[in-house]
């Protein structure tokens, strides 16, 4: 478990977004978001896309932060490939 939960925790904490607010935006139970947040479960790939969409509606910068932390090394590798 891990990368999605770490990314979610950083994005929510940095932008002051509650787990409940994200859960409401996703139309799911807060306990599900809590499991991701505490790295007890990982969201499915389709759900990661839904998380990004929900975060964009709440706070676009939080969505970007989530993507950067979640994809971190992949994004940096691509940036290096273009240099």
How does this model look, in words?
It is a single chain. With 83 residues, the chain is mostly helical. It has one domain: Orthogonal Bundle (434 Repressor (Amino-terminal Domain)), CATH 1.10.260. Helix content is 80%, strand content 0%. It contains five helices and no strands. The protein has helices spanning 3-15, 19-26, 30-37, 45-58, 60-82. Helix 1 crosses helix 5 (60-82) and helix 2 crosses helix 4 (45-58). The protein starts with a helix and ends with a helix. The model has no long low-confidence stretch (mean pLDDT 91). Residues 8-63 form the HTH cro/C1-type domain. InterPro entries: Cro/C1-type_HTH, Lambda_DNA-bd_dom_sf.
Helical residue percent band: over 70%
Report the biggest beta sheet as strand number plus sense, adding barrel if it closes.
none
Distance between the termini: 33 Å
Please indicate the count of domains.
Answer: 1
Number of strands: 0
- Predict the CATH topology: 434 Repressor (Amino-terminal Domain)
Low-confidence stretches: none
Task: Write a short abstract of this structure.
Pfam families: HTH_3 (PF01381). One of its GO terms (molecular function) is DNA binding. With 83 residues, the protein is mainly α.
